[in-house]
Each structure stands twice: as structure tokens, then as C-alpha cells.
């Protein structure tokens, strides 16, 4: 029998994230004038990831419907799931935004109009758009309009232009330095949002034609094949079939493969730039990724406004545990360090996601786990929790949902009960 994690946390006291009455820096010797606490915005590839993002500390989430966002091959949300997501998010006093950032063709417009009306009726807090036609349609609703990074806003005149068209927030292009962001902030009163973590694109703010050219799948309509991360070799025109390595690696060279963005090392400078929202990339990534990254940045942002910000080893350790390519600060610091990695396109990680805690019995010190990866008796595991510290233990006993003793859990989403050495929070992640 499967346990519904969504139902199991309805009455769970969250107690994490921002205090709505504490958005300004507290009065203390640590003070930066006119600097508000920024929103932490997390990806929601499906309803479970949305829950994880909010429970682990995000102030807001962004999602895509089954059409019209730039993640056509993600799980995405049906209309019914959107209604459920809005109810869940607003029930926690947080915000939810819909990505409608496709570059629309004429054949899309009728369905887009109906979809935007639905999002308005569903009380989504804003829509992210990049196409001027979609922006025009969104203005006919009561929806707030956020301009997507796909619109390539790299200067304050462009930001002011979109604001004049009705946008309340501009998601800036990733290709900007801190000084350029500050300049836009000083010359435009719209809210600004920037990416602080996640995968980067080799093309200008994701405006890419490579996938369409090579495979027929259009990245600008949500169907990117990530052709930039493929392995390429050089072929001379008259010697067809002879492949020459572009770089030093005999396997080929990933000449367009970007590192992953991580602005944690300079988060203080990011906050001091005055942007309203700090965005994490990753609607196609795992629950483990969403929970881990959100908790780290939640702690880091809060520590800054508590006046004791410093980069902590446990934050860096956590970001290294999730699947990632080598990290870079991208363009923000304008330090000249390369943003590409030439040796491999595959992300690395130092932990394995095994399951989610969906119930805990304090009287027997038993955790109920919904399995996501194979684990077994005598295996060393850790519990990564929404609020409390991570702890490790060895699995000493395991039972299935019927109470029968088992030695391993090899089946996807199998329900398993294990003895734990400490109380464990619902929605904790069990990892190796």
C-alpha cells in the first residue's frame, strides 16, 4: 500500500522560511540602507518538487503547465494540478508563478488566451513571459507580469521599456555583471530577479537555435535537446569519416558545455545589489536537488540578515552532494574565469538519493520511507531534514508495509519502515 506524502504533511507544522514581518534588516550594528530581504524563488517541476521547495524554505515557486513553458519534456502541471499547487502554496502564505515564456506562433494564440484566463482564475500570483505577443495577452487579465530571462534584458532602457508595457518584475539576463545589475537597479523601479544557482546555457540567455538545427526540436518552444552538451569532434571537408579531437581529451571535447552557476560565495554582494528575487534553476531536476539547494540558500540568506553571514563548510558540502557540474560565479563578478567545462558533460554528485520520510512514529522510533533508490540492511545512510541538522546512522532493521522483515528495498516507491536513532522530520530525505 502506497502512502500519499502530500496527505501526510497537511497537518505538519512547517515553521521555516521568511517571517512576513521581518523583511527589513533588524536594527543593529549590521545595517545596509534600503536593502530588503529578497525572495528565494525555487523551481517546481511537478507537485512533489513544489512541496519540497516550499517545505525546505523557498518563499515562492515557479512552474510550467503542459504547454507554453520552456520545459516541454518535464512533468509539468495539468490544470487540476495547478489548482492544487496554488491552494498548497497559498496555504503556506507563499507565492506561485507560472512560466509562459514560450515564443508563440500564430497557431498558439487561441489556446494561450484560454490558458492565461485559466491562470488568472486559478489566482496564480504572476506569469513569466518573454514574447511580446504573450505579454499583450497577459495584460488583458489581472495577472502580474514578470519578464523572463529569455527576453534578454541587459540594460536599464530595456527594463524600463518592459515596465512601461506593464511588467512588475524583470528577470535579468544571466550575462550581466554586478555593476551592470546595480546600474539597472538605479535606473528602473521595477522589481529585478536574477539567477543564483543551477545550469547555465551556452547561448545568450537561452536564445538558441542549435537544437532546432540539429534535431528539429525547438528550444524556443520548450523542446531543447541540450545539443550544447554533446561530444563533438572536428571533421575536415575532404576527409569525411575522419574525426579529430578538438581538445586534449581523446574522447572529444565538450566545447559548448557550461559549468553550473553558484553565487553562494558572493551572496552578500548579490543581496546588496538590491534585487527583489533570487532564483534557482532546475524544473527538470530531482527532489533531492531542490531540497538541498533551497535549504542552503535559505540558511545563507537568513544568516546575512541575522548579521553573521559567512560561507559555512556544511553549505558547500551540501551543494557538492547534489548532482552538479563544476561551479562558477558566471558573469556576476566579471573575474574572467571560464564558464565552460571541456572534459565531460555529465554532472557529478557525492550522495545517492534513497527515499523520502513520509511518517515517523516517536513511540517506536520508526520512520516510514517511500523508496527512491535501492538500500539494504547494514547500509550507512543520512537523513537530510527540512529544519533540523542532518544525521547519519546504519540501517539495523527493515520491514515492508505489511510488517514483514526484509533485507533490502529494490522496488521503486516501495514503502519501507526502518528503525532510526533520532527523531526525524516528515519530508526528510534519506541518502547514502
Gyration radius over CA:
23 Å
State the CATH topology of the largest domain: TIM Barrel
Strand order of the largest sheet: 1-2-3-4-5-6-7-9
Mean pLDDT: 85
Order of SSEs, N→C?
HEHEHEHEHEHEHEHEHEHHEEEEEEEEEE
| Helix content class | 10-25%
Which class of the largest domain in CATH terms? Alpha Beta
Number of helices: 11
Distance between the termini: 25 Å
Task: Please write out the topology.
Elements (H helix, E strand, L loop, with lengths): L4 H4 L30 E5 L3 H9 L4 E5 L14 H13 L3 E5 L9 H13 L4 E4 L2 H7 L5 E4 L8 H9 L4 E3 L6 H10 L3 E9 L10 H6 L44 E3 L4 H6 L4 E4 L6 H19 L7 H9 L5 E2 L24 E9 L4 E6 L3 E2 L3 E5 L6 E4 L3 E3 L7 E2 L5 E5 L9 E3 L1
Helix pairs in contact: 2-3, 2-10, 6-7, 10-11
Write structural notes for this entry:
By secondary structure, this protein is α/β, with parallel strands linked by helices. The chain has three domains: 5-200 and 259-328, Alpha-Beta Barrel (TIM Barrel), CATH 3.20.20; 204-257, no CATH class; 353-431, Beta Barrel (Elongation Factor Tu (Ef-tu), domain 3), CATH 2.40.30.10. It has eleven helices and 19 strands. It has helices at 5-8, 47-55, 79-91, 109-121, 132-138, 156-164, 178-187, 210-215, 267-272, 287-305, 313-321; strands at residues 39-43, 60-64, 95-99, 126-129, 144-147, 169-171, 191-199, 260-262, 277-280, 327-328, 353-361, 366-371, 375-376, 380-384, 391-394, 398-400, 408-409, 415-419, 429-431. It has an eight-stranded parallel barrel with strand order 1-2-3-4-5-6-7-9, surrounded by five helices. Strands 15-14-19-11-12-18-16 form a seven-stranded antiparallel β-sheet, covered by helices on one side. Strands 13-17 form a two-stranded antiparallel ribbon. The longest helix has 19 residues, at 287-305. The two termini are 25 Å apart. Mean pLDDT is 85; it is low at 1-34.
Amino acid at each position: 500500500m502506497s502512502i500519499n506524502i502530500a496527505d501526510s504533511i497537511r497537518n505538519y507544522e512547517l515553521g521555516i522560511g521568511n517571517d512576513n514581518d521581518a523583511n527589513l534588516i533588524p536594527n543593529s550594528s549590521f545595517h545596509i540602507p534600503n536593502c530588503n530581504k529578497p525572495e528565494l524563488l525555487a523551481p517546481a517541476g511537478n507537485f512533489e518538487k513544489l512541496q519540497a521547495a516550499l517545505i525546505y524554505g523557498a518563499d515562492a515557486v515557479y512552474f510550467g503547465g503542459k504547454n507554453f513553458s520552456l520545459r516541454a519534456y518535464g512533468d509539468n502541471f495539468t490544470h487540476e494540478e495547478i489548482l492544487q499547487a496554488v491552494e498548497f502554496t497559498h496555504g503556506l502564505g507563499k507565492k506561485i508563478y507560472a512560466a509562459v515564456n514560450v515564443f508563440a506562433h500564430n497557431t498558439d494564440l487561441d489556446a494561450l488566451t484560454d490558458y492565461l484566463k485559466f491562470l488568472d482564475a486559478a489566482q496564480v500570483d504572476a506569469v513569466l513571459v518573454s514574447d511580446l505577443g504573450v505579454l499583450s495577452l497577459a495584460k488583458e487579465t489581472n495577472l502580474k507580469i514578470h519578464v523572463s530571462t529569455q527576453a534578454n534584458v541587459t540594460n536599464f532602457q530595456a527594463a524600463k521599456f518592459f515596465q512601461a508595457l506593464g511588467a512588475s518584475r524583470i528577470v535579468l539576463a544571466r550575462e550581466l555583471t554586478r555593476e551592470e545589475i546595480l546600474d539597472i537597479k538605479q535606473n528602473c523601479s521595477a522589481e529585478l530577479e536574477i539567477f543564483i544557482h543551477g545550469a547555465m546555457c551556452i547561448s545568450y540567455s537561452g536564445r538558441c537555435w542549435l537544437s532546432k538545427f540539429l534535431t528539429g526540436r525547438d528550444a524556443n518552444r520548450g523542446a531543447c535537446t541540450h545539443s550544447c552538451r554533446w561530444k563533438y569532434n572536428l571533421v575536415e571537408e575532404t576527409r569525411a569519416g575522419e574525426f579529430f579531437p578538438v581538445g586534449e581529451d581523446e574522447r572529444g571535447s565538450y566545447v559548448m558545455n557550461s559549468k553550473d552557476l553558484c553565487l553562494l560565495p558572493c551572496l552578500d554582494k548579490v543581496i546588496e545589489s538590491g534585487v527583489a528575487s533570487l532564483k534557482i534553476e532546475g524544473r527538470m531536476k530531482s527532489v533531492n536537488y531542490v531540497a538541498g539547494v533551497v535549504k542552503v540558500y535559505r540558511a545563507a540568506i537568513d544568516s546575512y540578515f541575522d548579521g553573521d553571514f559567512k560561507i559555512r563548510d556544511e553549505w558547500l558540502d551540501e551543494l557538492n552532494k547534489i548532482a552538479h557540474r563544476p561551479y562558477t560565479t558566471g558573469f556576476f563578478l566579471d573575474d574572467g574565469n571560464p564558464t565552460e567545462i571541456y572534459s565531460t558533460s555529465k554532472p557529478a554528485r557525492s550522495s545517492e538519493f534513497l527515499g523520502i520520510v513520509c511518517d515517523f512514529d516517536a513511540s517506536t522510533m520508526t520512520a516510514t520511507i517511500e523508496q527512491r533508490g535501492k538500500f539494504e540492511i547494514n547500509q550507512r545512510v543520512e537523513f537530510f531534514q527540512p529544519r533540523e541538522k542532518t544525521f547519519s546512522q546504519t540501517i539495523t532493521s527493515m520491514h515492508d508495509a505489511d510488517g514483514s522483515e526484509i533485507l533490502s528495498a529494490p522496488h521503486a516507491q516501495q514503502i519501507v519502515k526502518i528503525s532510526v536513532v533520532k527523531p526525524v522530520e516528515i519530508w526528510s530525505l534519506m541518502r547514502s
